[in-house]
């Protein structure tokens, strides 16, 4: 049998050579307090060195030793020949000076055009004597699991480093922010690669390398990049406004679990539940209410919380969007005019607070008196029934209900006294309901939350109290 020579993947040398001029190394300098950063050497009391060291360190701090320079390294890439550069916000956060270095050796100071902490992106500007090489954004829809990708960056300060791998997964949520939808890759990404581009094999930027999972800080094949679609949208807004302009509905939401779906009369656990509605927000004006379960937004199916979060954020401010939702088991639809998230953040009122029940599912209930409001730091606007105490191993305790919470509604009906809570639960039980949904407000200014409790799971001591 003739000997066959194995062939490796096609060389990416030509592609790398074309792209490297548009990739930059970013170094930053920050001045931080150095006081107490260097401990005073320990010497025996009375030692002749004691006075020397004390005098030296005191003098050093008085003569300018109060600040020390801290440097960090990262990567970036040029998107406009005039000098616009994309990087991660964490690369330049807190920097007093930002320096950009190109592959030809040119170095320039950079200014911040805008930044977005929610997606960890930043846009910089440098002034250069000649137009710069640029790279274009690709489209997220064109990125497939298994496609070859190439990372170029400044790992550990080794500028112009190239690594290749494949797209391992898409739409990854690694809990770094509200808009997580990362591309996962096994291309080597290390410290210093942050802010650098992830290219497809056509030279399009398909992602911005942002994070790694590694116990040692070095690549183990778990790198994550912000998709180009998200990046280009944020960068466009930063370029035009110096800030992001995201859509806003004025609601707080939570995932619909199987227990919640049953308690709300839904056939399956899908969509997201509205837990709270801002009185001054677009959702309130449109007619959305706590307890509504959103299943479609602008024609897109909503499966989980981050779907709706992303869809709303990407909505043009002032645009009218159709929302489909279930209310008390009935499918409904209405139109919402998206507001401006950033403009609303300083105006969002604190969510209502709430307390807990008494001797129901392991809870003891109490009237919401002025004394209870002071005891649990409840605002004047919250109404309902206070959870006075919760038995540690009760069903209520297992569901996360805590002392100081306030029961606002049960199965979307308002309750105001401990007796009304007991009566409501008894009525639902008599109607054959197997799951009861409590709407609770957290103490100390916390948000509202829906908690489902299955009657079949209640322990004997956590069952319904006897009638008075």
UniProtKB/TrEMBL annotation:
Substrate binds at residues 90, 120, 192-194. One of its GO terms (cellular component) is periplasmic space. InterPro entries: Chloro_Bact_Ser_Proteases, PDZ, PDZ_sf, Pept_S1C_Do, Peptidase_S1_PA, Peptidase_S1C. Its EC number is 3.4.21.107. It comes from the Bacteria. GO terms for biological process: proteolysis. Gene3D superfamilies: 2.30.42.10, 2.40.10.120. The active site is at 90 (charge relay system), 120 (charge relay system), 194 (charge relay system). It catalyses: Acts on substrates that are at least partially unfolded. The cleavage site P1 residue is normally between a pair of hydrophobic residues, such as Val-|-Val. GO terms for molecular function: serine-type endopeptidase activity. It is found in: Periplasm. PANTHER family: PEPTIDASE S12 (PTHR43343), PROTEASE DO-LIKE 8, CHLOROPLASTIC (PTHR43343:SF3). This is Probable periplasmic serine endoprotease DegP-like. It comes from Cohaesibacter celericrescens.
């Amino acid at each position: 049998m003739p000997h066959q020579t194995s062939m490796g993947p096609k060389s990416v040398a030509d592609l790398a050579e074309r792209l490297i001029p548009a990739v930059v190394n970013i170094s930053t300098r920050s001045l931080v307090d150095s006081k107490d950063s260097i401990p005073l050497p320990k010497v025996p009391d009375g030692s002749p060195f004691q006075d020397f060291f004390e005098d030296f360190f005191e003098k050093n701090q008085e003569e300018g030793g109060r600040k020390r320079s801290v440097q960090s390294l990262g990567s970036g890439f040029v998107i406009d020949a005039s000098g616009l550069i994309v990087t991660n916000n964490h690369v330049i956060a807190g920097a007093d000076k930002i320096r950009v270095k190109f592959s030809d050796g040119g170095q320039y100071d950079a200014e911040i055009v805008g930044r977005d902490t929610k997606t960890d992106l930043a846009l910089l500007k440098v002034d250069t004597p000649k137009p710069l090489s640029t790279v274009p954004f690709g489209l997220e829809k064109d990125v497939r699991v298994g496609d070859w990708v190439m990372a170029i960056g400044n790992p550990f300060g080794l500028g112009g480093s190239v690594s290749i791998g494949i797209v391992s997964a898409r739409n990854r949520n690694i809990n770094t922010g509200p808009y997580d939808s990362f591309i996962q890759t096994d291309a080597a990404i290390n410290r210093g690669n942050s802010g650098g581009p992830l290219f497809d094999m056509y030279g399009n930027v398909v992602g911005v390398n942002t994070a790694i999972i590694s116990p040692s800080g070095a690549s183990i094949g778990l790198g994550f990049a912000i998709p180009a679609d998200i990046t280009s949208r944020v960068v466009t807004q930063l370029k035009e406004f110096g800030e992001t302009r995201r859509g806003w509905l004025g609601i707080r939401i939570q995932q619909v679990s199987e227990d919640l779906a049953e308690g709300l009369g839904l056939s399956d656990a899908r969509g997201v539940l509205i837990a709270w509605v801002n009185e001054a927000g677009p959702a309130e004006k449109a007619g959305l209410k706590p307890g509504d379960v959103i299943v479609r937004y602008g024609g897109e199916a909503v499966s989980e919380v981050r779907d709706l979060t992303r869809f709303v954020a990407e909505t043009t401010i002032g645009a009218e969007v159709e929302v489909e939702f279930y209310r008390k088991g009935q499918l409904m639809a209405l139109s919402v005019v998206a507001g401006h998230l950033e403009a609303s953040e300083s105006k969002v009122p604190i969510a209502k607070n709430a307390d807990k029940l008494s001797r129901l599912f392991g809870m003891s209930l109490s009237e919401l008196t002025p004394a209870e409001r002071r005891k649990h730091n409840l605002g004047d606007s919250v109404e309902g029934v206070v959870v006075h105490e919760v038995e540690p191993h009760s069903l209520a305790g297992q569901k996360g209900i805590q002392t100081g919470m306030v029961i606002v509604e049960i199965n979307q009906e308002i309750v105001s006294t401990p007796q009304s809570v007991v009566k409501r639960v008894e009525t639902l039980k008599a109607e054959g309901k197997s799951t009861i949904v409590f709407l609770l407000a957290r103490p100390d200014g916390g948000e509202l939350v829906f908690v489902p409790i299955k009657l079949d799971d209640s322990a004997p001591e956590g069952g319904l109290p006897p009638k008075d």
